[in-house]
Amino acid sequence: MTPYRLPQGGLIDRSKPVSFSFDGQALQGFAGDSLASALLANGRLLVGRSFKYHRPRGILTAGAAEPNALVTIGRDGRTEPNTRATMQELYEGLEARSQNRWPSLDVDIGSLNSLLSPFLGAGFYYKTFMWPAAFWEKIYEPFIRRAAGLGRATHEADPDAYEKSWAHCDLLVIGAGAAGLAAALAAGRAGARVILADEHAQPGGGLLSETAGIGGKSAPAFAADLLAELAALENVTILPRTNVFGWYDGNVFGAVERVQKHLAHPDAHRPVERLWRIVAKQALLATGAEERPLVFGGNDIPGVMMAGAMRCYLNRYGVAPGRQVAIFTINDSGYALARDLETAGVSQVTIIDSRPEGGIHYAGAARIVRGGVVRDAHGGKALTSITIAAGGKTERLRVDALAMSGGFSPIIHLACHRGGKPHWSDEKSAFMAPSGLQGLSLIGSAAGIDGIAACLEDGAAKGAALAETFGFKAEKPAFGRTAGEIAPMPARPLWTIPGIRGKAFVDYQNDVHRQDLGLAVREGYGHVELAKRYTTTGMATDQGKLSNVNAIALLAEARGVSPAEVGTTTFRPFYTPVSFGALAGPSHGRHFQPVRKSPLHGWAEKHGAVFVETGLWYRSAWFPRDGETDWRESVARETKNVRINAGLCDVSMLGKIEITGKDAAEFLNRVYCNAFLKLPVGKARYGLMLREDGFIYDDGTTSRLAQDRYFMTTTTAYAAGVMNHLEFCAQALWPELDVRLASVTDQWSQMAIAGPKARKILETIVDADLSNAAFPILAAAEVSLFNGQIQGRLFRISFSGELAYELAVPAGYGEAVADAIMEAGRDHGIQPYGVETLAVLRIEKGHVTHNEINGTVTPGDLGFSKMISSAKPDFIGKRMLERKGLNDPQRHQLVGIRPLDPAAIFRTGSHILEKDAAATLENDQGYVTSSCHSPHLGSTIGLALVRRGAERHGEEVLVWNGLRGEFTPGRLCSPVFYDPQNEKLHA
Length: 987
Description:
Blueprint: E1 4-5, E2 13-22, E3 25-31, H1 35-41, E4 48-49, E5 56-57, E6 70-73, E7 80-84, E8 94-97, H2 124-128, H3 135-147, E9 162-174, H4 178-190, E10 194-197, E11 213-214, E12 217-218, H5 219-232, E13 236-239, E14 242-248, E15 252-258, E16 273-285, E17 289-291, E18 304-306, H6 307-315, E19 319-320, E20 324-329, H7 333-343, E21 348-353, E22 367-370, E23 372-379, E24 383-390, E25 393-398, E26 401-405, E27 408-410, E28 423-425, E29 430-432, E30 440-442, H8 452-469, E31 482-483, E32 505-507, E33 512-513, H9 514-522, H10 528-535, H11 548-559, H12 563-566, H13 580-584, E34 596-597, H14 601-606, E35 610-614, E36 617-622, H15 631-644, E37 646-650, E38 655-660, H16 664-671, E39 684-690, E40 696-706, E41 709-714, H17 719-733, E42 740-743, E43 748-754, H18 758-763, E44 780-785, E45 790-795, E46 804-810, H19 814-824, E47 830-832, H20 835-845, H21 878-881, E48 892-899, E49 911-914, E50 924-934, E51 939-947, E52 956-961, E53 966-973
Parallel strand pairs: 2-8, 9-10, 9-16, 10-13, 16-30, 18-26, 20-21, 20-26, 21-22, 34-36, 37-47
Antiparallel strand pairs: 1-19, 2-3, 4-5, 6-7, 6-8, 11-12, 11-31, 14-15, 15-16, 17-27, 23-24, 24-25, 28-29, 32-33, 35-36, 37-43, 38-41, 38-42, 39-40, 40-41, 43-46, 44-45, 45-46, 48-51, 48-53, 49-50, 49-52, 50-51, 52-53
Helix pairs in contact: 4-5, 4-8, 6-7, 9-10, 9-11, 15-20
């Protein structure tokens, strides 16, 4: 094959030359070229080496299915291996390097593997590396790891930016060929919100390579006119360079837009790739059909190419494939290529048509061999000749390019991503999309429709029909007559060619040839999923786009069944490779875990807060004042002030979940171990959420704001986990319940106002009656503030043991409301307090957090046995909670602990030993879960989980810290150190 640039023609801009390099050699193309077309225009046939045998490989296709022309582009942090040259746009200064070769592409030591090919058949690795066993770790595994993969990833940081975006539309059209453009235009003209996504830089699909006329215009000009009209419609969004890679529940589609991958110097203020989540009411799959290779000897030699790809390079890029061209076809597509080659000035064209009769009447000068096949192609790094068999005779024909067309397979991958299985069509000789799809329809060639005119008609009709379902008045566009098209109608498939001598490849990238599939069947791996793994067919970066149908057909022949009985492997996202950069988006470096700041962060800063990282949140830890030299001084002051006057604490970080629906009460009753079914409207309740194994998962309060509406708070650390847990319960465990969940953590600014003077302060802010009679402990209500200026929610909840409230207001009002409360409480001595003070207050009161709820405790361990509802027929964890081990009296139970000497200290994590026991782990009785200095008790206090703790109050023990060598005599006691009668709570 000696490809060359034609003196004229194509859609490239010949006035703009573009310099690039391949393996260090300086080359030149034009604006509008792909890397593949530019390489061909420069006469470069050899572009890569195969994975296993390191055979010379050339460009086979012109699109996303390319298995051979995988190169590394860029340098340093912008190095990108395994880039398909067929999809990479040419830009000034592009550096491309071949892969999987050493020391060079022309001279590759790995090609010696071809000599060993008789020993490297399918499954050889399962048989070869078994003995001796000692060789595995030292020899076999290191060798296999070095040999694995094609390109090499860089170790340098990627300097570019990536982002993620959501989009919503009425209609998503995937593919901008004839059918896709027609559908988008019909729906767009009607007024529907349309997103048109196409993986290529220039939308238009096969129209850009077509020489037929449509409505009196050339096919490329017709496509350009349709795109111009679509671009002018405000309700239509066109996303070129965008690959829709997955179809997910809720009619959500994943897509990657290559925003700046075609630029030499990306704008630092824009992403190079954007990951889209597109939510569509309906979607149309207009992805077209993939031309299939034919399986003959030497079908991988550089110079052998798909007929459609050869036509694309010829008509779109102005590159002729060679001067002596053969076309091996089973359908009429080969004749369209022959006509275009002759028009471009390639005079020596031979058509080998496997059909003895039929096909179009061809009036060109090409020689036609009917009823013939190509048995073998010959050559090394370039094609030199082919062997033709026809009428019982063979002929050796000198050629430098060979096109092949083995039929067409509709590109239906996305339609199968949600579990649907394709079905075999004998009429089309292809697998068709599953039936009964919801939210996704197929149009054009993807639906098995042949010809430009028919695809335009189908796309226009379905686009208009969907627009009508959206409530728009739609008319089907008219496009005029199509002239000069040779449409490839379905033909009898040709799976096996007799008399082959060379290797006939099925999967080009993984070097799987015809005999490998036969071997798989003979060795018991004839099931399509087993054959895939045994031979590795369909497991490369192209995921079998070219190979799978041929492989299935050959398996079927070997097994003596039809392709329908063999079936396909499972289709999964991603349709094409997606970069880690796109998936990560902005979440890398310092943005890997973005800082979360509450709506009251600015308020806390104004009051001099010292912040601490708690998960992703920045929380105010304490508020130092002048003269305080130690954080403990600040915390002691804040603690005393809350007990004497009042304090304000930011609790916006608590997880907040809205739960609605007529079955919301029943849902909560099953989620919590205590009763929630009869919780009155206007009341809050503390709840314990168990795991399936009976251990406590999380705790929090849930308030009933209306008959069918609840507001749940969770711990800060488990907010996301609880939300996921509830979604699982609603969607998987009890889908019959009418319940809806929404995370509203970021929608509300929530603050705790605690202390004896809390009511007096809030009465100047809240319009409602806050008396004990009107708003008792655990009351919850929606209230107005400042004489009706703001609507909020008020809860009579206390984590401090004091008279306390939690006030939630819309996030945007949080700082202003906190300022107003501080001003209203100025004369009452209100002060801000942070999480360190909150910890002291809760330990004094014996309240637990995840220090105690550590994944190993049950309600009984924490003294909450009475909260477990015996009347409920079921709740999560109920059955496992009845296990003998979870009711063992020897279990660790929550207790309080104080040092015998008030001046002594102990630390969280210290072990509890019996008074006179030796300091060994064998004598361990439990450990301190939380500790602090209590300014009210004048000593260190703590909570601990101790074996049989509930019955050991008053017992002297030894607190042992082995890391620091500390021994502190102490006494076990009730976990409630302050106001055990709850008098302050009910004040």
